[in-house]
């Protein structure tokens, strides 16, 4: 596109900022537009903080369907699928059900792992070139399971994932508690755990703020907040400008990275277009307690995560197909009670947490939309579900490749 080409990236979450930084590194004059007041105000703000480059897994599976009756009967698990019954979500639901087979799960999981491995290399290359502080650690992870049957099933899944790289070890209940002392004294059932020694953690919001600073101060980019993009104007088979609440803004290349809202800006004939729904998650962030965890720990039976970020401990859970963003007191109480039963001294649970809820942009097959979107210079990078941070830099590399800009 020439040495002085310009690009507009719509969206300042982790995916948009990673894409903007990589475009800027290839020589584009990049402007990021966002309706919010700053970076990472949506799904990237309070996520679980995990970077699981070697053990991602598709949500759609035969096992997911089998678990639905128990999950629906036990609301304490935090899975609420009733919102999928709304007519507006039927196209997503029908396509999701088609992915709930063993063959589809293996196909989608393999594709997700390929993207995650690409992302791992790109992510680490970027932070080597541009060091920044975001409470990053590589402590490893435990996924604890309540029964021997569940542990055996998880081990089979891990064996499949291991074909694509990464390490794991199956631990007994005693070995899991020895590996993570914060589990000592807990009352939740633990039959054993899968240990992932290469798992990383960090603060995604702080990382996004760091990316915004790098883009602006080192890579010559611009960030324009309070700017709502309303439509893409096109002529002659090319996008020529975006119409925004602040007027029309033109560029040579356009990227839509607005998560679940991306579809509203894409032409209907875009080949990569998929339905996206928001899957609501909740996180509570506490001051660290006397025995804060070293590892990130997922309680598979209770469907929640506890991890330490610096001097804070984050507890994340819930998967609800709803648009509601406020966090109810009973949700705080439930998530706190589960975390305290798992790790009694991990956090200062008696203090009021920083509570957050966000909508993860989920496609039916768990694979994000990445590529050309109807016009030769319009691209989309959206629909990363709960793995936006894990996939962000790999998705940016895929987009550069789709645009013929891979280096």
What does this structure look like?
The chain has 407 residues and is an alpha/beta fold. The chain contains nine helices and 20 strands. The strands form four sheets. Strands 4, 5, 6, 7, 14, 15, 16, 17 and 18 form a nine-stranded mixed β-sheet that branches. A six-stranded mixed β-sheet has the order 9-2-1-13-20-19, covered by helices on one side. Helix 1 runs parallel beside helix 9 and helix 4 packs across helix 9. It is globular and about 65 Å long. The two termini are 15 Å apart.
Secondary-structure-based class equals: alpha/beta
Shape: globular
- Portion of residues in helices? 25-40%
Q: Residue-averaged pLDDT, rounded?
A: 94
Helix and strand succession? EHEEHEHHEHEHEEHEEEEEEEEEHEEEH
Rounded to the nearest angstrom, the radius of gyration is: 21 Å
Uncertain regions spanning at least 5 consecutive residues: none
Amino-to-carboxy terminus distance: 15 Å
Percent of residues in β-strands: 25-35%
Please render the helix and strand layout as text:
Blueprint: E1 6-10, H1 14-25, E2 29-33, E3 50-51, H2 62-73, E4 79-80, H3 90-97, H4 102-129, E5 141-145, H5 148-162, E6 169-172, H6 173-179, E7 192-196, E8 200-201, H7 204-217, E9 222-224, E10 229-235, E11 238-244, E12 247-250, E13 253-256, E14 277-287, E15 296-299, E16 304-309, E17 312-320, H8 329-342, E18 354-362, E19 369-372, E20 378-382, H9 388-402
Parallel strand pairs: 1-2, 1-13, 2-9, 4-17, 5-15, 13-20
Antiparallel strand pairs: 3-8, 5-7, 6-7, 10-11, 11-12, 14-17, 14-18, 15-16, 16-17, 19-20
Helix pairs in contact: 1-7, 1-9, 4-9
């Amino acid at each position: 596109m020439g040495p002085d080409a310009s690009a507009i990236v719509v969206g300042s979450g982790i995916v948009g900022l990673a894409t903007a930084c990589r475009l800027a590194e290839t020589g584009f004059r990049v402007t990021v537009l966002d309706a919010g007041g700053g970076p990472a105000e949506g799904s990237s703000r309070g996520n679980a903080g995990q970077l699981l480059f070697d053990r991602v897994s598709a949500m759609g599976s035969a096992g997911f369907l089998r678990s639905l009756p128990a999950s629906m009967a036990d609301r304490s698990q935090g899975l609420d699928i009733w919102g999928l019954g709304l007519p507006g979500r039927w196209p997503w639901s029908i396509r999701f059900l088609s992915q709930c087979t063993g063959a589809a799960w293996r196909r989608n999981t393999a594709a997700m792992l390929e993207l995650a491995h690409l992302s791992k290399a790109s992510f680490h290359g970027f932070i080597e070139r541009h060091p920044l502080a975001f409470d990053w650690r590589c402590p490893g992870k435990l996924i604890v399971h309540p029964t021997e049957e569940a542990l055996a099933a998880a081990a089979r899944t891990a064996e499949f994932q291991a074909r694509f790289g990464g390490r794991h070890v199956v631990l007994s209940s005693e070995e899991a508690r020895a590996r993570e002392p914060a589990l000592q004294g807990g009352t939740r059932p633990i039959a054993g755990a899968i240990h992932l020694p290469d798992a990383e953690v960090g603060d995604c919001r702080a990382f996004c703020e760091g990316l915004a600073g790098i883009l602006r101060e080192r890579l010559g980019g611009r960030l324009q907040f309070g700017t709502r993009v309303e439509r893409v104007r096109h002529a002659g088979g090319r996008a020529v400008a975006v119409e925004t609440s602040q007027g029309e803004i033109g560029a040579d290349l356009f990227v839509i990275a607005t998560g679940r809202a991306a579809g509203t800006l894409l032409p209907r004939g875009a080949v990569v277009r998929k339905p996206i729904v928001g899957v609501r998650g909740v996180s509570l962030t506490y001051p660290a307690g006397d025995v804060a965890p070293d590892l990130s720990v997922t309680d598979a039976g209770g469907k929640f995560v506890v991890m330490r970020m610096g001097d804070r401990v984050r507890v994340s859970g819930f998967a609800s197909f709803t648009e509601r963003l406020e966090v109810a007191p009973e949700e705080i109480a439930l998530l706190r009670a589960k975390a305290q039963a798992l790790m009694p001294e991990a956090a200062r649970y008696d203090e009021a947490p920083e509570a957050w809820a966000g909508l993860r942009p989920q496609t039916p097959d768990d694979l994000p939309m990445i590529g050309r979107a109807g016009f030769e210079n319009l691209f989309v990078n959206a629909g990363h579900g709960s793995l936006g941070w894990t996939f962000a830099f790999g998705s940016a590399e895929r987009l550069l490749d789709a645009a013929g800009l891979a280096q």
